[in-house]
Amino acid sequence: MTWDALVGRARRAMTTAGFAYVEGGAGRESTMRANRDAFESWQLVPRVLRDVSRRDTSIELFGRTIPAPLLLGPVGVASMAHPDGDVAVARAAAATGVPMVFSNQASKPMEECAAVMGDAPRWFQLYWSTVDELVSSFLARAEKCGCEAVVVTLDTTMLGWRGRDLDLGSLPFARGLGIAQYTSDPVFQRLAAERPADPRPRPTPGAIRTLLDMSRAHPGRFLDNLRSPLPAAAVRTFLETYSRPSISWDDLAWLREQTSLPIVLKGVLHPDDARLALDHGVDGLVVSTHGGRQVDGSVGALDALPAVVAAVDGRIPVLLDSGVRGGADVLKAVALGATAVLLGRPWVYGLAAGGEAGVREVIENVLAELDLTLGLVGATTIAEAADITLVRRGALVPG
Ligand SMILES: Cc1cc2nc3c(=O)[nH]c(=O)nc-3n(C[C@H](O)[C@H](O)[C@H](O)COP(=O)(O)O)c2cc1C
C-alpha cells in the first residue's frame, strides 16, 4: 500500500540496470523532484456538510466513458519489470476499464496486447520515426488494434542525459529490448532485411551478452536468431530511424492525413505551445515532463498545468502526468483543470512486484483512494471536483 514498500519490492524483483532505467531521471534529477514538489505544494481545501453518500468518478473522454480520470501512460521496455511485459499490463487495464496507452517502445507487439483486451479502451503512443512509411504503418496497425487516440510524444526527439544508465553503460534498446513494435512491423522488417550486413563485433563478454539478449528478444526461435544477422540488423535499424529531431509544427498536417484518430500531443509544458497546438487543430494535450527523464531543471508538470489550462480554455482535453502517485494527486490535477492523468512508474513497479495482479492492485488502489478523497473533499463527481477553489498553493514541505 505504501509507495516506499512498492518501490522496494520492485527493486528487489528487477535487475540493477532494469530498475535504474525505470527509476532514473535526467541529469541531477531535479525535474523528478520538481514533479513531486509541485504535488506536495498544491494542497486540497476540503468542503464539509455536503451529501457525498453517492459518488461517481467516471468521465467522458473522446466519446468514451471511462471509470475515472485515469489512464495507464506509455512506458517502454516493460519486459524489464516482468517477462509478460505489456500483455500483463493490458490484461490488468482491461479488467479495470482504465485505458492503456500502448508504448511505441513496448516489449510486446500492440496486436498481442489488443488480443487480450476485448472491447476495453486503448490508445497508441508514437515516436516519430525518420521513415514516414514506418509512421504510417504504426498508425494503421494502431487503428486496426482498436486504439482510440494517438499520443505523439514530443519531448523525446533525443534521449535525455540519464546518469544512472550511463554509469551502467545501459541502453535497453541496444540489446534489442523494447523494440517489439518495430520487429513486428512489415515496413521495419523490410528495412532491417535490406540493410547491408554489419561486421560481427569482437567476441568480448559484453558483446556476447548483447548477442544473447538480442537473440532472446527477437521474434522467432532463439537458436535461429543466434546464427541470424537479423536481430543485430533490427537493433541498428532502430537506432538509426527511431526519432526525427527535425519534426516541427508544419509536420502535423501530414500526420493528420495519416489517421482519423484524435491526435494528442504529449510533453507540452509551455502555454504558447498549447496555443500553437490549438492553431494546428490538435485534439488533446498531455502536460508532461516525461517523468523528469528528459530535461533536468524543468518546471514540475503540475506547476505547468494552470497556464496550459488557461491557454486552452476548455477547447480540448488537457491531460497530465509526471509525479502522480495516488488518488489525492489525481484530484489535485483535476481541481487545477486537468481532464485526466496518466500513471507511469506506479504501474511499472506493480508489474515488477506482482505481474498482472500487481498492476491491477496499483490501479485499484488509486481508484479507491480517488473515490474516497472525492467524497472527503465534498464532491460527488469529477465535474464538481474540477473546482479551483478546492486547491491552494501552500508552503513547500521539504520532503
Ligand atoms: C521506464 C520508463 C519508460 C518510459 N517510456 C515511455 C515511452 O515509451 N513513451 C512515452 O511517451 N513516455 C514514456 N515514459 C514517460 C511516461 O509516459 C510518463 O510521462 C512518466 O512516466 C510520468 O512520470 P512518473 O512515472 O514519474 O509519474 C517512460 C517513463 C518511464 C519511467
Give the spatial strand order of the biggest sheet.
Answer: 4-11-10-9-8-7-6-5
Q: How much helicity do the residues have?
A: 40-55%
Kindly report the oligomeric state of this protein. Answer: single chain
- Mean pLDDT comes to 97
Write the H/E string, N to C: HHHEEEEHEHEHEHHHHHHHEHEHEHEHHE
**CATH architecture of the largest domain, please?**
Alpha-Beta Barrel
Major β-sheet, in short? 8 strands, parallel
User: Structural class of the helices, strands and pairings?
Assistant: alpha/beta
Q: Per DSSP, what share of the residues sits in E-state strands of 2 or more residues?
A: 5-15%
For the record, the count of structural domains works out to: 2
CATH superfamily of the largest domain: Aldolase class I
Question: Which features characterize this protein?
Answer:
399 residues; alpha/beta; TIM Barrel; 2 domains; 18 helices; 12 strands; 11% strand; binds flavin mononucleotide
Q: How is this structure best described in words?
A:
This protein has 399 residues and is of the alpha/beta class. The protein has helices at 3-13, 16-23, 30-41, 85-96, 110-115, 132-144, 163-168, 180-183, 186-194, 205-217, 222-227, 230-241, 252-258, 271-279, 301-312, 327-335, 345-376, 382-385; strands at 42-44, 59-61, 64-66, 70-72, 100-102, 122-126, 150-153, 263-266, 284-287, 318-320, 340-343, 391-393. The longest helix is centred in the C-terminal third of the chain and has 32 residues, at 345-376. The two termini are 19 Å apart. Flavin mononucleotide binds at residues 21-22, 73-76, 103-105, 125, 153, 266, 288, 290-291, 293, 321-324, 344-345. Flavin mononucleotide (FMN) binds at residues 21-22, 73-76, 103-105, 125, 153, 266, 288, 290-291, 293, 321-324, 344-345.
